[in-house]
Each structure stands twice: as C-alpha cells, then as structure tokens.
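ok trying again, last paste got cut off:
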Amino acid sequence: MASNPADGFAFVTTQWTRVLEARGESADAKAALSDLCAAYYQPVFAFVRRNAPDEESARDLTQEFFTRLLERRGIEHVDPQHGRFRSYLLGAVKHFLADAREHANRMKRGSGQTPEPLEPPTDTSPGLDVADPNAPSPESEFDRRWALTLLDRALASLAAEQKASGSMEQFEVLKVWLTGDTENVSQAEAARSLGINEGAVKVAIHRLRRQFRQSIKNEIAQTVKDRAQVEQEMKCLLEALL
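nice, full thing came through this time. structure:
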C-alpha cells in the first residue's frame, strides 16, 4: 500500500472497495470477494459454531454459507456509504442461519417430527450441552475472532516485509514485543542474541511496533470503504480483544 508522508497511511483501492465498485459478474469483484472470504473464514466459523449443535455441523454450514455467498449477488444490496466487510459478513451469516433454521423446521414439519432449534441448547432448551451463561455472545466471539485473524495477517505481512529487507533474524527475536509473549525474555537477552546494545534493541522494538500498527491499518483498509473508517474499525477491534 502506498505511503503518505504526513501519517504513513494512504487509502487506495483495496479488496472491499473493488467489490463495491465492480459489482455483479465482474471477475475482479469476484476474485476480491473470494480472497476476503478465504481470509476471514474463522470468524464466520466461530459464529456458526455458537449456533450449531456440534463442530461437524458448524463446518458444513460454514462451507455452505461461503459457497452460496460466492455464487450469489447479494453484495449488490450493500450500501457503499456504510459498507464494512465485517458488518456485511456478519449480517449475511445471520440471514443464512435464519434461512437454514427455517428450512430445517419445514423439513421436520413435513416429516411429522417436532421442529428443533438450530442453536445449541440453553437452560430452557435441553440438549447435549448446557450453555454457559457467562460465555460471550456469538457476535462478540465473531468480532474477537475477526480481530485475532486480522492481527495474524498483519503480523505475517510484517514478517514478509522484514524478510524482504534482510531483517528476518532481528524480527524473529523481537516479535515477542508485538505479540506480548515477553514473560520469559528480556531486552538484555535479546540484545546479547543479536549482538547489539540494549539501546539499539529499544529503538528496534519501537520501530517494529510502529510498522506493526501500520500493517494492522493496511489489513483493516482491505475491509472498509474509506479512510475515515480505518481508525474507527481499529478501535472497535482492539476493544473486542479486551
């Protein structure tokens, strides 16, 4: 993504904007949507799993959801002025599950069986498992998995940049200060491992954190319509991790 001298970030045409600006049967829009769906499979699966009786059913439903999403042109109904791919995807999977639930109930009614809910059992709806009343909502789990997926992608992107610049060895040592896994390592140890002083390590960590934040912004930009939404989305997703 291109850089802006003022703040290190410039919004350009990205995957979601390509989808919105080239709808219908456009090969470019289809490819962009397919890439986004592949990247954010896990949040959808996490949401479906909270609404399905078991993991196998959840995987089948998730696969069917993405198959239908990529085959149909429901994307044409998204309002470009308010389009975030995260919001669109969550709304689409909710609609899909409601349809799946209604279809399952129609089939049971037609066979003379009592309709059963698609959702996992609760205290008032006995089943194989007892729902945890303290568990986060399916929507919260979707947002959390979305945020984790986005951070993983941003870290992988940053790693690729570091490798290309010949800084992979330093990155492998210092990336724990990006992921928070610093309990068993110190900056002094990192300095000895890299053959530099602690001051240089502090500077390198600061630079990596700035680059990681930029990488996160770049990933978010792939899923929103305009630059103004990047900071809003970043705030929402960081809150989802708290």
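cool. The chain has two domains: 11-135, 151-242. Residues 151-242 form one domain.
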